[in-house]
Inverse folding.
């Protein structure tokens, strides 16, 4: 297992960073490596974002020195969405079959957690978010059909999209983790515009379902000091609470969002007037 530790940054720092420095601090460029759990540990609310691609055999989720605990979920909760071929997640003595776009919530204190693919030719790719937890909630298998659907945007604004809420109070209980998958309608390319911040929570965006030459221009930074990251398929962006988070793609894409912080209110957003953006 591999941990990549990312430290917190003040919003004024981002004004002076080069493209390379922005990417080093906020872009998670490699999430899936064969037979390994690849994890980024961010000091923004101590969220962990990562990926597991088991090919030759099962892969276990271990604690590591970075957590300072005996097991990964001793003081954490976990959200998982499979973006690859069919596979299984074993939590303790229970095994859950996850097809493409199936999700799983695993509460604090559960485990050990092991990931496996049904086929080495079409391996599962388990994307995960984990957050510190203070209470144990039951493990929940969440299919795409079970996720709560929220339809937003329109074709005229090129942002028609369906938000599938997986780890969400309307679907299952969690301590602070909220997680879902957004699918853009055919012909739409903006994921959020007008954009917003939510000072009380941070977020990680994971972009996937993209062609090899498709790119998403992810907008970040303060409203009057915007920056951008050019993101390829199966890469993720750490979005601090002080940063806007909006993006536009050159082709089809979907994304998984995970949020942690002071509350779990999906609509707790501070919208940015268009004339404020610079």
């Amino acid at each position: 297992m591999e941990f990549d530790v990312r430290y917190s940054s003040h919003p004024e720092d981002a004004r002076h960073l080069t493209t390379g420095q922005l990417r080093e601090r906020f872009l998670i460029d490699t999430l899936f490596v064969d037979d390994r759990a690849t994890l980024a540990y961010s000091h923004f609310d101590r969220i962990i974002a990562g990926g597991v691609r088991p090919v030759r055999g099962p892969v276990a989720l271990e604690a590591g020195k970075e957590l300072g605990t005996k097991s990964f979920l001793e003081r954490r909760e976990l959200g998982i969405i499979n973006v690859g071929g069919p596979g299984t997640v074993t939590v303790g003595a229970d095994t859950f079959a996850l097809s493409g776009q199936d999700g799983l919530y695993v509460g604090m204190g559960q485990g050990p957690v092991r990931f496996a693919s049904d086929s080495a030719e079409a391996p599962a790719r388990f994307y995960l978010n984990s957050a510190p937890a203070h209470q144990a909630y039951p493990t929940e298998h969440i299919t795409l059909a079970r996720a709560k659907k929220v339809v937003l945007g329109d074709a005229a604004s090129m942002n028609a999209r369906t938000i599938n809420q997986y780890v969400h109070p309307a679907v299952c209980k969690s301590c602070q983790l909220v997680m879902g998958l957004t699918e853009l309608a055919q012909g739409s390319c903006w994921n959020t515009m007008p954009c917003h911040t939510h000072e009380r929570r941070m977020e990680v965006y994971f972009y996937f379902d993209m062609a090899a030459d498709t790119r998403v221009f992810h907008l970040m930074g303060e409203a009057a000091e915007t920056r951008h990251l050019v993101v390829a398929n199966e890469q993720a962006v750490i979005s601090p609470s002080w940063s806007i988070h909006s993006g536009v793609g050159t082709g089809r894409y979907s994304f998984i969002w995970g949020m942690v912080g002071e509350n779990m209110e999906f609509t707790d957003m501070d919208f940015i007037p268009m004339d404020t953006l610079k």
User: Anything to note?
Assistant: The chain has one domain: 2-276. Residues 2-276 form a domain with the Jelly Rolls fold (CATH 2.60.120.10). The two ends are 40 Å apart (CA to CA). The mean pLDDT is 94.
